[in-house]
Amino acid sequence: MIINLITIAILAILLKWILSDIIIEKRKKKRLIYCVLLTMLITGAELGCLLTENTVPENRWLAIFFNTLGFSLTPFVFLVESNISNSKKRILYYLPPMINLVLTLASPYYGWIFFVGEDSSYHRGRFFIIYLIAFLYSVIFSLVKKLFSSRNYPAYFNKRIIESGIFLFIGIMIQVFFPQYHTTWITTAFYLVLYYALSCEMSSLMDGLTGLLNRTAFNKEIEHLKLSPKWSTVLFMLDVNNFKDINDAKGHTFGDYYLKEIGEILEKVFSLNAQIFRFGGDEFSVILMKKVNDSMDYTDKLVSLIRNRQMEDPDFPGVAVGYSQFEAGKTAWETIDMADNNMYKDKRAKGKHS
Asked: Measured between alpha carbons, how far is 119 from 123 in angstroms, rounded to an integer?
């Protein structure tokens, strides 16, 4: 009981922090708020179960209500927190929790997920495993989504997501095997605090205009960059041509719009094994890991996509590109200088300016 009260207190403080947060992106903030509220509700339901279990027969229907509430909502917690943007597949993603919901709602009559005896004693139902599968599915789904979303961030983000996920899984399984220890929701509360802290750091490394990583993230990645003998690591430096002229002629709103579009084009070109940064102003950089020496192919694809865009809008700016490979014995800053010099050579060759 005390653990449940502590859990609710932790979640209430976390909710206050999230509501007053100005760093995290709005959609992520909204999902986190729903997740915390749902967790508080389920923790309250578990507290209700503890207060009514093994008491007087008159409390049986209260115990049934609290168990139904908890078992119905639990598998939805981490799906609510996940970013499920594809509306067509959303029903499929929610299918396991929906199956559990139906079985749970029928449990007061058939005892499928849980059963409450006449003396208000709680028992697991013969299909309790379906609830467990639905819950673990939602946890694993959420972790996979987080790992996918953080794939372009510095590598230590994935490590932290995995470590917090293991912590969460252990807390859940302790209560599965030892029902007398109510560890699931206190563990979930700590997990959400850890994820909130990680989300704040991730948001601080994101460029607000383009949604790409920012210069701070670039510096962190350079500091922790590790070369692999199996992969080539190449740095691309890019600068938008004649960008000042665009701002002067069409205004900064148009300039910002073009920067966002160029960021989207870069994501199409360097879609795999790459980290894309807004280096500053109208400059971008890309750190690409690849197995073959095909840097020119990426440059050609980039130039081709921009030319296609210029056919639609003649004012759309071109870019100058330079690249250099990270090599043992050469410092990261030497690689940056070489890529930067190659980029300015490309700009001069095209007769362009910043």
From this structure: 11
Axis-axis angle for helices 184-204, 2-19 (nearest 10)? 20
- Contacts made by residues 307-312, CB under 8 angstroms, sequence distance 24+: 309/261, 309/265
Specify if 337 maps to a domain: yes
Closest CA relative to residue 236, chosen from 318, 302, 156, 153:
302
Which pLDDT tens digit goes with each residue over 201-250? 888 888 888 888 999 888 888 887 777 777 788 899 999 888 888 877 77
Q: What is the pLDDT of residues 131-164, one digit of tens each?
A: 999 999 999 999 998 988 887 787 788 899 999 9
Do 253 and 127 share a structural domain?
no
**Nearest by Cα to 49 from 191, 180, 187:** 180
pLDDT at position 354 over 70: no
- pTM for the whole thing? 0.82
Q: Does 83 map to a domain?
A: yes
Residue ranges making up the domain that contains 39: 2-204
Top-confidence residue, 278 or 88 = 278
* 16 vs 14: CA distance, rounded Å: 5
CA torsion sign for 277, 339, 239, 306 is: negative
**Confidence at residue 84, expressed as pLDDT on a 0 to 100 scale:** 66
- Residue position matching structure tokens 């959303």: 90
pLDDT at 326 over 60: yes
Looking at the structure, tell me whether residues 185 and 69 fall in a common domain.
yes
Cα atoms in the Cβ-side hemisphere of radius 13 Å centred on 174: 15
For residues 200 and 219, state if they share a domain: no
Closest listed residue to residue 138, CA positions, set 199, 196, 84: 84
Domain count, the chain: 2
Q: Is residue 209 part of a domain?
A: no
Answer yes or no: are the C-beta atoms of 172 and 136 closer than 8 Å: yes
First-residue to last-residue Cα distance in the chain = 64
Residue 75 structure tokens:
């598998």
